[in-house]
Design goal:
The complex is a heterodimer of chains A (1432) and B (180). Chain A is mostly helical and 1432 residues long. Helix content of chain A is 56%, strand content 4%. In chain A, the strands form 4 sheets. In chain A, strands 9-8-7-6-10 form a 5-stranded antiparallel sheet. In chain A, strands 11-12-13-14 form a 4-stranded antiparallel sheet. Chain A has a two-stranded antiparallel sheet with strand order 1-3. Chain B has a single domain, classed as 2-Layer Sandwich (Beta-Lactamase), CATH 3.30.450.60. With 180 residues, chain B is of the alpha+beta class. In chain B, helix 2 packs antiparallel against helix 4. In chain B, strand 4 and strand 5 form a beta hairpin. The chains are: A mainly alpha (1432), B alpha+beta (180). At the A-B interface, helix 1, helix 9, strand 2, helix 11 and helix 13 of A face strand 2, helix 1, strand 3, strand 4 and helix 2 of B.
Chain lengths: 1432, 180
């Protein structure tokens, strides 16, 4: 060992001498090649390509060579030394081999150089040992030495095959050498074991060598004679040759060849009594494996030995057996540890042979002795852990990132734990004596264990012992938990055990708040989690976890968090009812150090919670939703003035937290629908009408004796509260006072149950609404990464949900997509939002077409023409494909994109019918089921969805619907394309088929396709034709092709589809609609058709005179600006607002108090009671229809005459029936309205047209509600509701909204809706709005704001203009004096009004230097700078 | 089936320079770096535990494995274990290594220079104590014997033999060398 004795300087000196003497590598290699004496295969010069270099520290410190040392230098010197082959060379050889020790990575040529040396250096133990070491380090893929630096491209994880073969060949040759020195044999076996770990062939070789060695030893023993051939000079057999046993067992273990079932493992018994304590340990370790496999076998083998060992142990403590070869050698502490595990494995097995009352008794006794009396902590706590059931599973033996084992493994382990727990409970009272504690005499086993654990936890000094003790407590609790969940019938506990665990829980609870290192704290928390899950009282909660984590700081590594997450997962699985708590822990764990979290684990945890049943599902939804909104944990914030490393770490944590939240958003997007059981197209089954409503309706109807009329009451207002009430009484001479009283009572009842109604029908999934709101909040307020994730999630939910959620998502997304100034994509989400909106537009358009078809072909899908059905199916398939391509998968078995009725129709389709039949069946089935299977379904459905994705393109049904351009460039899907489609659809199918450009690779259909586009020109007139054939009762103006060309903005997504929607509102003057509606709107508003239709539908109930000038909010298109003295016709009255028609024919809302009623046509007024009843009935109908929300604004009023199975169908069915009453728009408004909708794109533009076309059919229904509330913009009502819930969801308009929120609910004059409904009547999304914690998704609101904001020219002006523009509830009472304009101003942005000096205006309000004025000359309103307005 | 291994053993200075390390799992370079990082977090310069007392155990975790670190002299010894190698077992392993170094090098205060000047011993001790991740020899004499290419265990029966026994043994030994 001269090398060891040499000082550093000596080594370095010699090495540098060696190095300096070397010639160039090339010359060196050539020299090697020339040398005939070189015993090795000549290393080719090219092979010296890899040159791992030592780190600077080593190079400097050891070799004193700051320029670094490369392995090739050493190898060249080594080759030189080998070639020298003299004494000096041999001395150098050893020194050079030592140099190689420093290199963590050896190139293959090094090994090829070394292998021949095994023979050459056979006598030199130092060289030989070094050779073994180097070869071992090389073949085991592991590394030994110091970190080396080299080109990572050259990194090979596996040893070079050739080099490995050379090593293996050498090992095999050595092992076959007769009379091999046992020590050399030992080293060779270990080398073979090292190679065998990663090489199955080498493992076979090793096993063969082991068997050969055993056989040889046995042969030698059998031969017996002194002349017997054998490697050993001593006469021994394999059973007594302890060296051989030691080597063989150790090598088998090291190679991973010991399975517990192989021959060597099963012969472990011969070695346990070995005189060699380490050999006995290896034998016992193999016995543990065998005991896991076959405890009965181990009992048979070991009964005597263990019994004797226990006896001896009790008498004299750990010691070698009295007679070597008998009993068990317990000298070695690791051996005792293994013995305790072996005993535990035996007594905890499920074999009857291991019953502790009989054959298993000595094993349990031994285990107790080791656990209570062993002097070494390692053994004692190891035994306690083993007793608690913590036996290392194969899954935990590999260094994985907390990956749980297979389900089967998990179950087996839990069963074992359950048995361990029960055994412990039954044996807890066994008296044991502890030599040290003689004063107590015999103590109960569990008490001793408890005391030991408590001591270990309390006693500082050994963190390792602390961790192991905490782990043992965790193990106990986990076993208790396992016992509760596996074979629960037999779970039990004993007061003793409970007491001890209670004490331990209290101790741990106190400890977690103390100062501990992170790993110790982690162990404590783990134990506490299990204790809590097992039902033991602890004072631990997620807040404390956060606290504990926060104080841990940077020391928390991913491993600890993984461990805690694993614990949380196990607990949540075992206790689904408490899943919410444990999931809260999970979030807290993430918050400790988000960057170290394996997010897969988190989603697994959530999925597992979902799978655990209803409670778990609710809990996980709550937790995940909360995670979206929760602020970043403290770990993501660097303290001021902290070190750069700290700041970097905080940045990393923040990134990790964002990833976590993004994952949460993703997970919600993927799973929200399944969890809320909200599937697009699922048939809605509203619960029974609440009793209160029914009673109210009936009572009111009876009282007023106007039940029939009540059903169609036009005024759905609560007359009691209305300012119109007095007027009504005046006019209504036949009113019955008693009936009024009864009606008032009924109204009260109705009011009381309104909330119930909403809950029942509107809020059929409050959870989903909450999710939407959480996502919306995230999308608007978070960093871009999270915004994107939220937008994606919303898109998914939109596609997969039925109404109203789809519309909610739509408006949320649309608002976000046009959030910036001038409709730009300020949030940067266009890439997600545009395709999603385009798809949704198409979906709606398809539904409109479907609706037409429905009207055309009747209610019986069976009777539909086959081509139509096939075409519909193709369209549906195409939409599904697009959804899968751009948004998410929508498996046909679960979602019907086009609604329930589409599924009904498509069930009859030849190709896809099966799917839809199964969908229908499935949805029925799911309705019937108690629906606690979502969790399991979730897992199964995920795989199905994957299949669907994979299969959908393969089963392309022919690309039924091909858009001219991709969904991202929607502009070409223009209206006349749609016209043509409709035309063809209605004319029974045209032969004009042309393959369309298909940028996405969908093949074009050549079959009949009602939806396919055609290039046929001259379809201009078909628009009208289409409308006419849909509903020929309307006089439709003829139109030219040019007139039909829509003026959609090029960037408007989905305009084409909404063109189709417009096609379905056939009442509108086609010319007006297609030419002027979107641009000016006034033409449409004043179109004769409209007037005619309006006159026909809305009955005039009275006339009035305007008392004060009222300027409608230009953001509230439904408000009408009227002037003092105007004579107006009153169409409807509700809740402080009146729908009036002014002399020019425009209709709109005016506050009741601004009007003086001149005449009231009483026949149109119902008694208050009747109105109330009607309101209640209408409310029910509306809820039953699935909560009309934005659908109304979009153009749907609900047709109450139909069953309300599918909201969408209702929405669109209204096009035919309710198309008369097109309200005209206030003159001031279309301009701004048109502009603001343009932000939305064509979709909303046309939706407005559709909206306008869809007021109530005749006044027989209380459609005034829907007319005003539904079809007109409900912005104000959303805001007011937002105010009600106390949360302003809009960051833009937060301030003004908050200011208003206090007054709005009470004094805001609602245009529609009886007072119980209040704002809800016109609340577009009352579902969401009603849930107390929810914020209204205020897409429209945003839209308003975005329009306004652009007026201000930037987001900075949002607040101000939110105030100006979006406070529609301030009746615009302009009573001030006229003021002159003193300076000209040219309005550039929407909402601004161009004025010239000399114009006379009235100022409505002034904020932030902007005045909202009405110009008296033309009654236009808008914003002008305050400086432009002169004084009074 | 195997129930855990000592996945890594490392010796580093308190400043974090690796003096010797041995991995018993097939780690990639990146994983090795992670392991080193985890070690560093337990007792390295960035852990704030640099001033830890001599022979104090420091614990940590890496993935599902446990880490124990024991400072000794100017060095810190680390071990990473999985499965059955709990903190106590790892601490035991490290203590064996440390005490062997101290005895073999006759240096109560271990420094990197001591280890470097006895580097073969440094490496081979770890090799004998933790064979392929399995704890093998745990007492200094056996370790030194094994490093010297002798069997670590000599049956005590043979040692305790009386004169007759050793004579017999010698006779046996002699006879076995006769050509068969």
């Amino acid at each position: 060992m001269s090398a060891q004795k040499e000082g550093k300087g000596g080594m370095a000196g010699r090495l540098s001498k060696l190095m300096s003497s070397k010639a160039s590598p090339r010359a060196e290699a050539a020299a090697v090649a020339e040398s005939p004496a070189a015993p090795s295969p000549k290393p080719a010069p090219a092979a010296f390509g890899r040159d791992p270099r030592l780190s600077k520290y080593i190079a400097q410190r050891v070799f004193n060579r700051p320029e670094g040392v490369g392995v090739q230098e050493v190898l060249r010197a080594l080759a030189d030394a080998i070639r020298a082959n003299d004494k000096a060379g041999r001395a150098q050889l050893v020194a050079l081999l030592l140099r190689l020790f420093f290199f963590e990575e050896l190139p293959p040529e090094a090994v090829q150089l070394l292998v021949p040396l095994f023979q050459a250096q056979g006598k030199d133990v130092r060289a030989l040992r070094s050779l073994y070491y180097l070869a071992e380090a090389y073949v085991s893929c592991g590394s030994a030495g110091t970190p080396t630096l080299y080109d990572p491209a050259l990194l090979g994880k596996r040893p070079d095959d050739k080099a490995l073969q050379a090593v293996l060949g050498e090992v095999g040759r050595l092992l076959e050498t007769p009379a091999l020195d046992p020590a050399v044999a030992r080293a060779s076996f270990f080398l073979a074991a090292a190679a065998a770990r990663s090489n199955p062939a080498a493992r076979k070789q090793l096993v063969a060598a082991v068997q050969r060695a055993i056989a040889e030893a046995d042969d030698a023993a059998a031969a017996g004679g002194p002349l017997a051939p054998g490697k050993s000079p001593r006469r021994r057999s394999a059973a007594t040759d302890w060296d051989l046993q030691h080597t063989v067992f150790a090598a088998s273990r090291a190679a991973g060849a010991a399975t517990g079932a192989d021959e060597v493992s099963r012969s472990f018994g011969v070695g346990v009594g070995s005189g060699d304590a380490v050999g006995a340990r290896h034998a016992l370790a193999m016995g543990v494996e065998a005991a896991f496999r076959d405890a009965g076998y181990v009992v048979r083998e070991m009964y005597e030995a263990v019994a004797e060992a226990a006896q001896q142990y009790e008498a004299s403590g750990p010691s070698p057996p009295r007679m070597p070869g008998q009993g068990v050698n317990l000298e070695d502490s690791f051996a005792r540890l293994y013995l305790s595990r072996l005993c535990a494995a035996v007594v905890q097995s499920d074999q009857s042979a291991t019953d502790v009352a009989r054959d298993g008794a000595p094993f349990f006794r031994m285990l107790c002795l080791l656990a209570t009396r062993d002097p070494v902590d390692l053994v004692r706590f190891g035994a306690i852990e083993a007793m608690a059931g913590a036996l290392a599973s194969p899954a935990s033996s590999a260094l994985t990132a907390g990956k749980a084992g297979s389900a089967r493994e998990d179950t087996v382990q839990r069963q074992r734990r359950g048995r361990a727990w029960r055994l412990l409970v039954t044996q807890a009272g066994v008296e044991v004596t502890v030599p040290g504690a003689t004063d107590k005499g015999g103590m109960k086993l569990i008490d001793v264990l408890g005391r030991l654990l408590l001591l270990a936890l309390r006693k500082t000094g050994s963190a390792a012992r602390f961790c192991v003790a905490a782990g043992a407590v965790a193990s106990l609790a986990e076993s208790c938990l396992a016992s509760q969940t596996v074979g629960s019938t037999r779970h039990g506990s004993s007061p003793d055990v409970d007491r001890v665990l209670g004490v331990l829980a209290a101790e741990l609870g106190a400890l977690v708040e103390g100062s501990l290192r992170a790993a110790q704290r982690c162990a404590v928390i783990e134990a506490l989690l299990y204790l809590q899950a097992a039902g033991y009282a602890t004072n631990f909660n997620p807040a404390k976890l956060v606290q504990a984590g926060g104080s841990g700081g940077a020391a928390w590594t991913g491993g600890m968090q993984d461990a805690l997450l694993t614990a949380v997962l196990k607990c949540a699985r075992a206790k689904p009812r408490e899943a919410a708590r444990f999931l809260g822990y999970a979030t807290a764990v993430v918050g400790i150090a988000p960057s170290g979290i394996d997010l897969v684990k988190i989603t697994e945890l959530w999925d597992a919670a979902v799978a655990s049943g209803r409670e778990g599902r609710e809990a996980v939804l709550a937790v995940v939703t909360e995670a979206l909104a929760s602020p970043p944990p403290p770990s993501t914030q660097a303290r001021a003035g902290s070190a750069p490393a700290e700041v970097t770490r905080a940045a990393r944590e923040e990134d990790g937290w964002n990833s976590f939240v993004a994952t949460a958003a993703w997970w919600l997007g993927e799973n929200a629908n399944a969890l809320c059981e909200e599937y697009a197209g699922r048939k809605l089954q509203p619960a029974a009408i609440p009793g209160g409503i029914a009673a109210a309706s009936a009572g009111a109807a009876a009282a007023a004796q106007l039940a029939a009329a009540a059903a169609g009451a036009s005024a759905a207002a609560n007359g009691e509260d209305s300012g119109l009430d007095g007027g009504l009484e005046d006019g209504d001479k036949s009113d019955d006072r008693e009936a009024d009283a009864a009606a008032a009572a009924a109204a009260m009842a109705a009011a009381a149950t309104a909330a119930e109604l909403l809950q029942q029908f509107g809020g059929r999934s409050p959870t989903l609404s909450r999710i939407l709101l959480a996502l919306q909040g995230l999308m608007l307020t978070a960093v871009w990464q999270l915004r994107l994730a939220a937008a994606q999630a919303l898109a998914k939910i939109a596609v997969r949900s039925g109404e109203p959620y789809r519309l909610q998502c739509y408006s949320i997304l649309a608002a976000a997509g046009s959030s910036g100034a001038g409709g730009s994509d300020a949030l940067g989400l266009g890439s997600v939002i545009r395709p999603a909106l385009a798809l949704l537009d198409r979906l709606y358009a398809a539904q409109v077409v479907l609706d037409q078809l429905w009207a055309e072909h009747g209610e019986d899908p069976e009777a539909w023409p086959k081509e139509v059905v096939a075409s519909l199916a193709r369209r549906n398939a195409e939409l599904a494909r697009q959804a899968e391509r751009y948004v998410c998968s929508v498996p046909r078995e679960r979602y019907s994109l086009l609604g329930h009725r589409a599924a009904l129709v498509l069930a009859g389709d030849v190709e896809a019918g099966d799917y839809f039949s199964s969908f229908l069946k499935g949805s029925e089935k799911e309705e019937q089921a108690t629906s606690d299977r979502v969790g399991e379904q979730l897992v199964a459905s995920k795989s199905r969805e994957v299949d669907a994705i994979l299969g959908s393109h393969a089963s392309d049904e022919g690309g039924s619907l091909t858009f001219k351009a991709g969904p991202l460039s929607e502009a070409s899907a223009t209206l006349d394309d749609r016209n043509k489609e409709i035309d063809r659809l209605l004319s029974g199918g045209a032969a004009l088929q042309q393959p369309s450009p298909d940028p996405w690779g969908f093949s074009a259909a050549t079959t009949y396709n009602a939806f396919a586009e055609s290039s046929a020109d001259g379809a201009g007139g078909t628009w009208g034709a289409a409308a006419a054939s849909v509903d020929t009762s309307f006089p439709v103006a003829a139109q030219s092709g040019e007139a039909a060309t829509p003026r959609f903005g090029a960037a408007a997504p989905g305009s084409g589809d909404w063109g189709a929607a417009r096609a379905a509102s056939p009442d509108a003057s086609a010319a007006a609609a297609s030419t002027d509606w979107f641009g000016g709107g006034e033409a449409a508003a004043q179109g004769p058709q409209v007037q005619q239709g309006g006159g026909g539908a809305a009955k005039v109930i009275g006339t009035g005179t305007v008392l004060h000038t009222f300027v409608g909010d230009y953001n509230q298109p439904e408000e009408l600006s009227v002037f003092e003295g105007d004579k107006v016709e009153v169409l409807e009255e509700a809740d402080g607002w009146m729908l009036v028609r002014d002399p020019s024919g425009r209709e709109g809302l005016v506050p009741t108090s601004y009007l003086h009623l001149d005449a009231l046509y009483q026949q149109n007024l119902q008694s208050a009671a009747a109105a109330e009843a009607a309101a209640a009935a209408a409310e029910y109908q509306r809820k039953a229809a699935g909560t009309p929300t934005r659908a109304h604004r979009r153009g749907a009023s609900v047709d109450f005459g139909q069953s309300k199975e599918d909201l969408l169908d209702n929405i669109f069915s209204s096009y035919q029936t309710n198309s008369f009453n097109l309200p005209s728009m206030p003159e001031e408004q279309p301009a701004s309205f048109g502009e603001s909708t343009s932000l939305f794109g064509g979709a909303s533009s046309s939706s407005y047209s559709a909206a306008a076309g869809a007021p109530a059919p005749a006044a027989a229904t209380p459609a005034g509600d829907y007319y005003s509330g539904g079809s007109l913009s409900p912005v104000a009502r959303q805001d007011s509701f937002t105010g009600l819930t106390g949360r302003t969801d809009s960051m833009w308009a937060a301030q003004p909204l908050r200011q208003d929120s206090g007054v709005r609910p009470s004094d805001y004059p609602e245009a529609a809706g009886v007072s119980p409904r209040g704002g809800l009547g016109r609340q577009t999304s009352n579902t969401a709005g009603h849930s107390p914690s929810a914020r209204s998704p205020s897409g429209a609101h945003r839209r308003t704001l975005s329009g306004t904001s652009s007026a201000g020219g930037g987001m900075a002006a949002f607040d101000a203009y939110g105030d100006l523009g979006s406070i529609p509830n301030t009746p615009s009472r302009v009573e001030g004096p006229e003021r002159p304009i003193v300076a000209g101003f040219v309005g550039e942005l929407e909402g601004e009004l161009s004025v010239e000096p000399g114009d006379r205006v009235k100022v409505h309000s002034e904020v932030d230097g902007w005045a909202r004025v009405i110009r008296l000359s033309d009654n236009r309103t808008g914003l002008v700078p305050s400086w432009a307005v002169g004084g009074d | 089936m195997s129930s855990g291994r000592v996945a890594a053993v490392a010796v580093a200075t308190r400043q974090g320079h690796v003096v010797y390390e041995r991995f018993h799992e097939a780690f990639s370079e990146a994983e090795k770096a992670e392991v080193r990082g985890a070690f560093d977090q337990v007792a390295g310069p960035s852990s704030g535990a640099a001033a830890a007392a001599e022979d104090e155990e420091l614990v940590g975790r890496f993935r599902n494995g446990r880490i124990v670190a024991i400072p000794a002299g100017e060095l810190v010894f680390y071990a990473l274990g999985t499965g059955e190698y709990s903190e106590l077992a790892l601490a035991e392993v490290l203590r064996v290594i440390i005490s062997t170094y101290r005895e073999a090098f006759k240096a109560p205060n271990l420094t990197d220079a001591v280890l470097f000047s006895n580097y073969a011993m440094t490496a081979l001790v770890v090799d004998e104590v933790v064979r392929e991740g399995i704890v093998e020899l745990t007492d200094r004499l056996s370790i030194q014997k094994a490093i010297a290419m002798r069997l670590p265990y000599e049956p005590p029966v043979e040692k305790s033999k009386g004169t007759l026994g050793s004579l017999l043994s010698k006779k046996e030994k002699a006879s076995s060398w006769q050509p068969a």
